[in-house]
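Changelog-adjacent note: as of this version, every example in the card shows the full chain rather than a window. The one below runs 250 residues end to end.
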Amino acid sequence: MMNLDRMIAVRNNKTVYRDGDKALKVFDKNYSKADVLNEALNQARVEETGLHIPKILEVTMTDGKWTIVSEYIKGKTLAQLMEENPDKKDEYLNLFVDLQLSMHEKVCPGLNKLKDKMNRKISETDLSATIRYDLHTRLEGMPKHNKVCHGDFNPSNIIITDDGVPYILDWSHATQGNASADAARTYLLFWLNGDIDGAKQYLNLFCEKSNTAKQYVQKWMPIVAASQTVKGNEQEREFLHSWIDVVDYE
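Full-length structure tokens:
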């Protein structure tokens, strides 16, 4: 019998519980079965790259709800550590970027392609046909890569164990593709979190350490912002819309 006493996190449509050395992510009854199984498959595939991530133990039903059971990683999130030790923020941001770059060094041929996902998301937006066309065209023009991309890489998805090993959590958005798209997403996540200084610092560090032109990451921003407007609350959508360039026509 599973013990669902200890709630760790409540997110949209899912709740994470701890049961001893296991973490149980329980999805709402109306959550798409295909999405649950895709997330489990993503995580299983990424496990094979050798990155430090919680291993999947089983996918099961709890009270009629789909549940992914994985290892419970004991420690503090990088977001918690940044909050508790503001004087160490630079050090933590460096670690954060190094971790993202070590992930981008991996390849995982089974993952969905980032470009396919972005194209699908742009098609689902309520943007005008003109802007959608422009975004699809921009996306098509971006270089094709096959690096492991997290898709939601932010300090609350990194856990540092008591002996200092960083683990990357939450692989529901993982794809293979262009690392700069992943960086653009992280930059926007800092913004959405209200940490504008952190966003700038992050982008500087990412570009410096990966030898990437800042303009190149910025070219991804409208594409990534558009693909994110499909979900998110009104305020977030408004903010993301401000990143989507309005196309001028004669």
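Structural remarks: The chain is about 45% helix and 20% strand.
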